[in-house]
Amino acid sequence: MNLLEIRNLSLSIGAHNILKGVDLSLSPGEIVAVTGESGSGKSMTALSVMQLLPETAEASGSIQLEEQELLDLPEDQLCALRGQSIGMVFQEPMTALNPVKSIGDQVMETILIHKALPPAQAEERAREVLTRVGLPPNRFPLSRFPHELSGGQRQRVVIAMAIALRPRLLIADEPTTALDVTTQAQILDLLQGLVTEYGMGMLMITHDLAVVADLADHIVVMRHGEVVETGHTRHLLRHMQHPYTRMLFEASDHQVTLPPVPDLQPLLAVADVVRDYRKPRTRLFAPPEFHRAVDGVSFTLHRGERLGLVGESGCGKSTLTRAILGLEEVQQGHILLDGSTVFSGHKPDRAVRRKMQVVFQDPFGSFNPRHKVHRLITEPFYLMDAPPKGTERSDRIAEMLAAVGLSPDDASKYIHEFSGGQRQRIAIARALITRPKLILFDEAVSALDVSVRAQILDLLAELCEAYDLTYLFISHDLNVVRTITDRVMVMQAGKIVEQGDTEQVFSDPQHPYTEALLAAAPRLPKITRGVA
Amino acid sequence: MLRYTLKRLLSLTLSLAVASMVIFAVIEVAPGDPASFMLGVNAQPDTLAALRTELGLDVPKTERYLTWVGGMLTGDFGTSYTYRTPVSQMIADRMWVSLPLALYALTLSTLIAFPAGIYAASRRGKPGDIAVMGATQLGVAVPNFWFAMMLVLVFAINLRWFNAGGFAGWDKGFGPAMQSLTLPAIALALPQAAILARVMRSALLDVLGEDFMRTARAKGLSRRQALWRHGLRNALIPVLTIIGLQFSFLLAGSIIIEQVFYLPGLGRLVFQAISSRDLIVVESVVMLLVFAVIVVNFVVDLAYAAVDPRLKSRT
Lengths: 532, 315
Prior knowledge:
The complex is a heterodimer.
Chain A: E1 4-13, E2 16-26, E3 31-35, H1 42-50, E4 57-65, E5 68-69, H2 75-81, E6 86-89, H3 103-113, H4 119-132, H5 151-163, E7 169-173, H6 181-198, E8 201-205, H7 209-215, E9 218-223, E10 226-232, H8 233-238, H9 243-252, E11 266-278, E12 290-302, E13 306-310, H10 317-324, E14 332-337, E15 340-341, E16 343-344, E17 347-348, H11 350-353, E18 356-359, H12 373-377, H13 390-403, H14 420-432, E19 438-442, H15 450-467, E20 471-474, H16 478-484, E21 487-492, E22 495-501, H17 502-507, H18 512-520
Parallel strand pairs in A: 3-8, 3-9, 6-7, 7-8, 13-20, 13-21, 18-19, 19-20
Antiparallel strand pairs in A: 1-2, 1-4, 4-5, 9-10, 11-12, 11-14, 14-15, 16-17, 21-22
Chain B: H1 2-29, H2 34-39, H3 45-55, H4 61-73, H5 87-122, H6 127-141, H7 144-158, H8 174-208, H9 211-219, H10 223-252, H11 255-260, H12 266-275, H13 279-307, H14 309-314
Helix pairs in contact in B: 1-13, 5-6, 5-8, 5-10, 6-8, 7-8, 8-10, 9-10, 10-13, 12-13
């Protein structure tokens, strides 16, 4: 008997058809991964099982949990099932917990709301599950609040809540997407261990094919609300039938060829840079304490070179980026671009500042929605003493839009008319328009779907060829860094622990931290390529 | 929590000190000499000088400030220029009307606003929500003195349940005193309740969209349980802010309602004192109101920390 059986599930919200005839089944003790790009309907499939859909959603077809039909179950019976028979883990551990309740209360609530145990025993059970997920109460008392925990620890609390009553089905919706690679590896381990130990079935929603290949027994590939391919993991990886599946896997492991680096002439020199942040005082008249975010970092970036910077969140990547851009002053050391310091006195030097540009992670948040594209991409002109005017200006706009694969007509559109990938192209056009000597890419492809990401990586490779780009590419995604950079630096706790030629560092890491980082990153199996 | 409280207390004391200086400075530079005002334009210079000495207006400003502050700390607010009675007594009499009135109105407004806001938020876009929002729109738009007049017409003149105005006094007992405050309190409370209900609704709607509400539902809580257990406390921060502001407003801003119901409250006292250049009364009442506002803010700060544990560790 199957634990979960979804037959011909269709879902519409207003005039939009979100799901079209989805079929899926799951046995006890099995991990089924639903994968696809954004908008494929994978999360909606998960929420349909929970029956936690938007009020205007209309579902048809059948969802059976142990032969009990969920679609026509009244709300009170659904409430009895949720948390008891079906547990769910969400993507964003930072916001999935109630900030004003202690973690003990929140775990106990799952038990108490179903009246599974009396309060004293519920507390005992809460201790047990928290210990099981790796938060033993002697180190993490039940009275802790979510804000006192890290992202990975919070995700463990969310998992503890979901498994407190040992549900038969666990739904995990992108459970590790917001986490660092090493934390991701631990959480995936934990989930896999729980499935084996409790004999649960797990429905895992993820866009990360490497995670899918590592973890799942069965894979369901979705696109535009439809299941395009499904099969046993090993079988499907060997014999992909649908071109979309093949495209997805190829795009996830997309490789580009960069032009060779010209002779080594230093462009950016960072020497012994230290950046301290003042911590909030612990006592009223206590001497201030400092957190050293960047700790004696030195490196040189040569003209025409593509340098990568990897490390986990909080390692100081972003602080270093801000210091190079002259957005923050450093306490020690100096940063020289083309021989001049970024900061002169306590102010960033405009003459130096105009030689670099930056592309940020979020294609939705980094544009002013009230300006048209031509104004958005010419913003760096404000840094110039004599910015181009008239036809020269419009020619430059047209040239840049064409260079990033858009049409010159797009200049008169607003940013909301573009998709995420197109917006990132516009961000690149904005960074390129003044022909800066250095571009910083701060997680510039991390928010994009794999197919779009592959296109942007291709674009970067082309632009390297056409404009001799020099860039610093900051990312937590090791696969991307491996293909898009010549040299790479690994950062841990404010220090550069290893740097060298990208291939060299990836194939033969010297520092234990680099080794750990590479070992934790889930890998796509090699069998996927070249097999049709 | 202790450190948080001490920090808030320190900031309270500093605010009071700064406020007292500002109030003194502003009122001192305001045109109009109380002595010449009291004696009229034809006063003899020597009479004027004598009165100025008597009122203590001839000593240097710093000394007058220190005397004023020192006096207030010991409960001596000075003597009214116009009535020649101790200011502390005048304020105390009025306080016995204004403070209960403000508390009464605030309680009513909270009692109306909480259920209305929660009801509307839990039925977003449905007829119940639209009805509540329509009513609050009206409550915000209609001035409170008009409500006051309508209340008098219906409950005092037609039904004769209440007196149309005046204050019975606490010496007549709790019942009659509260009865004479009821209509003014309702008139004051209705517009405040309308604002508070709207804030409550929008704060709750914001919280209902949060990820942790979905987590709560995934645990098996019903919509209603999730709203009460997880939504309400998170929505309280903006609501507490508004309640704090409303209390301060009700304490001093009820002058129109005091006029309509002929109540001897603080608002009327200030109004009369300003008209007769009774600076010492104005200064003292303003200082007292500032004190009340700052204390209310202090209480609201403590309430924030009780509601949201993140604040305790952040400061």
